[in-house]
Structures are given as structure tokens and as C-alpha cells.
Amino acid sequence: MEAAQVWNLCCELHKAARTTRTTWPGQNELQQATKGRFALHSQSVQMVVHAFLANIETTQKLRASHPKMRMKYPWKAKRFYPVHWPAQAVSRERGRVVLPMGRGRASIILHLDLSAASGACTLVWNNGFELHVCFEVPQATHAPGTNRATVDLGEIHLAAVTTDTDAALVVSGRGIRSLKRQRNVRHRHLAKKQTRCQKYSRHWKKLQRARNKMAGRIERRVRDLRHKATRQVIDFCVEHEVGTLFIGNPHGVRQESKGRHHNQRMAQWEYGKDIGALCHALFYPLHSREQLEGRLLSH
Fold it and tell me: Is the pLDDT of residue 143 over 80?
């Protein structure tokens, strides 16, 4: 909540500058305005400021390149925001991780054994607190070959890969599809029971905790299956010496209405995460939405 207050203050200062048509506050101005005002480590406050300025920069670029999208600058007040610690603020000692909260305040101590290669940390709430840790992974200096491959993403079959050497691979996504169906059925049963309870009552909260626990467990299983499936695609491309990988974007499929059952499956099809998982093995970042291309490198 304290990190969210930093974000909200940045939004207010930026909105005031836009309204009065004065110079927009930059990094120095925002850091001076937030210095010493919040119960956070100074570098954690600076990380929120950097994230806000990156959002402003991205919005400016999108407004220039896509005038019809009517992109808005950050305006909505947040109640919660993840807390970031850069690598130089994180302390690792005797099987524990110390996350400072600023002078005069107790640090957050987690009994975790992180390697020396770990860097920045982020405290995130995802139906429970999670600690996201950055690790520096060395990148390969050259592509495994000069062949080309194309990836077609799907909702039933997660990916179909074919190369210009007539090699092909189909990775099933039925496990992810089944888990999502199981989650929907359980949500329906729990929601039906909650309708018989008074909202925010003791029994209602008990059912809500069960719902969140179940949803979190299925989400972790889906994430694990997605990682394993995309890993198969990358290993296949490395094995067949693929140097250029093309990924089709199925975004237009969602625009067609095919009934409530099929529309639900399309709405829960997380092809963006599939593309993001594949991009972790790409040398160049992907920008195009219609046709994505990147240099494939092995780990």
C-alpha cells in the first residue's frame, strides 16, 4: 500500500503538469517530491518512479504510432503496488535474504538460500505473497543454424512447428485446456454456494479462501505445463539448427462470436503468455503483432 501511494503521488504531479500545461516532471523532480515521505527504502521508491516514467514514455510512443487507440496516461489511483529492491539493496547472508525497508524500520527477513547470481527482488501479491528474483542468464553469441521455422499457436494444440527442412512438431495443449475447464467447474460450484451466504460473512470468506487456493494451485500447474510445452518447441528448433523463428499472432480469432462456451475458451486462451515464453529464447525483442520474427538462440 505504501508503494501504491508513491505511484499515486507521481500520477497527481504529472496530471497537474498536464492540466496547467507546464513542464512535465522528470526523474529528478519526482525523486525529490517522493524523497523521505514514505515508509520504504529509498531505492524502492526510486524503482516505482522509474516504472512510472517508463509507463509515460511507452504511452507517448503508442499515442504517436496509434492515434486511434486513444491511449491514456496513468490516471487511476492504485491501492496496492509491488515493492521492488534493486540488486545492490538486497543482502544475502547465512541462508537468508534481507530486504531493507529504510532507516529506522525493521527489514524484511526471508529464510531463503539464494545463489550469488541472484539480483533484484520484487514482492508480489498473487493470492499470497511471492518473491520474484532476477537471475542473469548468459546468452549464446551465435544462432544454432541458418534454417527457418514457423510456429502456429492454438488453443487445443499449444504449438505446431514446421521448418524449411520438412521437419515438424505438434505440442498438445489438452492438459492446460483440461485444467482450465476444471477450474471453471469448481468456480461455478463455489460461487453457487457463496450466493446462499451473506457477503463477507464468516462462511462466505471461508469459501472465498477455498476458491483462491484452488485457483492459485491450478494457475501454477498451467504455468508449469506452458513452460514445458514451450521448452519442447525451443529444443526442437535448436535440434534442427533453426536460426530464424516466425510466430503467428492469432489475435483476430477472438473477434468472432461462436457461442458462450467457445467464447469462454477463447477468452481464457493465454496465447500472449505463450509468445512471451517463446521470446525468452530469442535474441532480439519482438514488436510486430501481425508477424513476429526473432533470432533463436540456445541456452
Answer: no
Q: Give the whole-angstrom CA distance, residue 132 versus residue 174.
A: 28
Angle between helices 174-194 and 202-239 (to 10 degrees): 170
- Residue 255: count of CB within 10 angstroms of its CB: 7
Bridge partners, residue 118, by sequence: 135
Contact 242, 296 (CB under 8 A): yes
In 3D, which of 28, 29, 24, 10 has the Cα closest to residue 78?
10
The full 3-state SS of 226-251, as one line of letters, equals HHHHHHHHHHHHHHCCEEEEEEECCH
Could you give the 3-state DSSP secondary structure of residue 296?
strand
Beta strands across the sheet bearing 118-125: 83-85, 118-125, 129-135
Query: How much is the average pLDDT of 125-149?
Result: 83
E-assigned strand segments in the chain = 83-85, 91-93, 96-99, 108-110, 118-125, 129-135, 147-153, 157-163, 168-172, 242-248, 291-295
Q: Phi then psi for 114, rounded to 5 degrees?
A: -95, 145
Q: Compute the distance between CA of residue 299 and CA of residue 237 in angstroms, rounded to an integer.
A: 12
Question: Closest Cα to residue 56, out of 24, 19, 23?
Answer: 24
Supply 288's cell numbers.
510486430
Give DSSP secondary structure letters for 168-190: EEEEE-HHHHHHHHHHHHHHHHH
Residue 218 scores a pLDDT above 60: yes
> pLDDT > 70: what percent of the chain?
93
Span 70-98, pLDDT tens digits:
889 999 999 999 999 999 999 988 889 99
pLDDT per residue as tens digits for the range 240-261: 999 889 998 888 887 788 898 8
296 beta partners: 282
